[in-house]
Amino acid sequence: MSAYLDRLGALAPAARWPQARTWLYGEPLPFFAELRAEAPVYVTPELTLVTRHADCSAILRQHHIFGVDLYKPKQGDYWMAQDETPVHVREKAIMRAILDREQLPAMRKFIGEVAATRLKNAKGSLDIQHGLARAVALSLVTDWFGFEGADRQSLFEWSYWSQQDAFHNQPFDHRSDAAGVIEKRQKGSFMMALYLARLVAKKAIEVKTGGGGDKPVARLLRLKFSGGLAPEFDIKRLIFNVGGLLIGAVETTNHTVGNALDWLFRHPEALARARVAAQNPDARKFDGFVWEALRFNPAFPYFFRTVQRDTVLGGVTLPKGATVLAVTHSAMQDAAAFPHPETFDENRAFDDTFTFGQGIHECLGKAIGVALVAETVRQVLRVPGIAPAGDIEWRGGVPEHWTLKWAA
């Protein structure tokens, strides 16, 4: 019996996506199971839902067919809103080069110390979203990435409204406050640009006089002044990319940390094993619990793309210009890619998951995100008896506040 598809079919075509969206968030796993089995490429007048792993992976990897056009009104000529253009290839390569992976062990140690200190100082009660997940990410941005002299509340708001507009304020979201979100993103982007221009000017002087330290902003400036970079990567492009370090770090960390902990706290058997693993000095023994929890409860249940030319996917013809959702939450429950997908297995390889995306638009800071998210969750579960005091408070599709308590 097609419980969901029959109900969708009985609706007026224009009402099908709004109803499907309700199930996508409210009853995801049974809804996805039916779509994968009976309509893996489900077309509505507004957009198309794609739910099998192979098809979702194809969408994200075939950027010449499925493009990121919907990012462009939000992010302008930032490379993330481009598909393998010279700008995309050049600037992503530059940013990867200055995010030194040899520093990851020290970075993870720093993350663990900041998280442990905030938990210790909280004395038995803490808003885990704003008081830990966002706070730890902001510490990384200010202390490790080099956002000196910035007001942390402003950094948070710049990151928050940028992500809200890009990922939660698309035409198919039908937000009643859409114009207000755009206005806040634009204001935040302007204020961030002013701050970054001053920061880069200050660092440029330091670098040219032999100082500046060894953080990403100084590294970028040294590369620029060396003459080894393409002239197209001017100071404006440099500032643009520095801003991306902030925007990509804070809200994604907040959401993934909240979702991973939410799933674990709702599943006592997995939680008990995770608590034991969190005590292991080898942090890598713990990390699988986070990625497996996010396979069941991802921060981003789908990625949106625009069809670049008429194409056939799963036997369905998709016309040029159509919006497609690669429903990766469903894809991560597909038995074709994950044997016994209903079983929580912290030892699974997470290479075929979509936590950090796939293809050319895979997260620039994936290696840092692995350390940042996993270590923050690990420090929470190292606290004896820590547990939710209530449910997560949501705002704009992301976790805003969530109090955890324990015996201090």
TrEMBL record:
Gene3D superfamilies: Cytochrome P450. Signal peptide: none annotated. It holds the Pfam family p450. The keyword Metal-binding applies. Keywords: Heme, Iron, Metal-binding, Monooxygenase, Oxidoreductase. One of its GO terms (molecular function) is oxidoreductase activity, acting on paired donors, with incorporation or reduction of molecular oxygen. Belongs to the cytochrome P450 family. This is Cytochrome P450. It comes from Glacieibacterium frigidum.
